User: Fold this.
Amino acid sequence: MEEVIIIGTGCAGYTAAIYTARASLKPLMISGMQPGGQLTTTTEVENFPGHPEGIMGPDLMVKLQQQAERFGTRIQYANVESVAKMADGSFVVKAGEETLEAKTVIVATGATARYMGIEGEMELIGRGLTACATCDGAFYRDVPVCVVGGGDSACEEAEFLTRFASKVYLIHRRDELRASKIMADRALGNEKIEPVWDSVITEYLTDEKGDVRGLKLKNVKSGDESELALDCVFMAIGHTPNSGFLGDLVERDDAGYIKQVPGRTATKTAGLFAAGDVADSFYRQAITAAGQGCAAALEAERYLTELG
Ligand code: NAP
Assistant:
């Protein structure tokens, strides 16, 4: 039986691993569909303390992994399907083909990019539709692309894409960006970025090969419809927390974020802790996720001490 299983390898998970490993708990981490979490799909991270010149998201995650492994963390790659609590208080974690047992579980599974929900949309992923500018931006040189959304992510991605694309449309459903002022100003001040206000996608237009070649848009104020020719759509309309696999072990808010005991990382189930974006709809920052990972590790350690 493991002392602690940490599910998820983002900032929260790795920080929980560093702390529990240094406490000699030999954590086992389960890394799912997106090893390294959301920062692996980010470019430069300028606001993570200790990196005055900034650091590339994937580089930061490699460093966190190395730091966690240095103290004895083990990492296993599998998709966790379910977690159950047994009568003796232990947990059974179904991860791929394996059934694992642990005294405590730290859930740090983060959140996944959202898409519009238009029929047939999922089949276009990788064919001119993506939620990762870092991964796919360089494929679209000297052609028009768009970013959908009005938050910090949309602005950041739009700016990043100006390195490659001939033009970046920023399609937002309102006439005001949600992004922080500094990021909104930067995006709107970039001559390659053209905002398309009050507009939503109603249809993806594709060519004979099935690749995205444009969009049908609707102006939500006037009702006018229009078409926009472009080669790639970068979705940046937020994320959905990955908490579904926990069943009734946790309480969630309306959006699916895990409810923690106020001021703690504990959940309604003793021995089950939640850290990072899966439980945080408010801050959603790498450093706050790391802080919660630390808190979850300390709480798990205390819980194990009390178990005796
Ligand atoms: P977000 O702040 O939730 O913004 C999502 C955007 O998508 C909003 O503008 C929203 O429109 C729009 N949207 C949502 N659902 C939509 C739909 N169905 N159709 C069309 N548009 C839709 O998400 P985010 O930009 O990913 O940022 C998440 C968090 O990470 C934030 O706290 C942000 O500050 C942080 N972040 C920070 C940085 C940085 O500091 N470097 C970078 C990226 C993200 P409305 O505005 O109308 O709601």
In short: The helical segments are 11-22, 57-70, 133-136, 152-161, 181-188, 286-307.
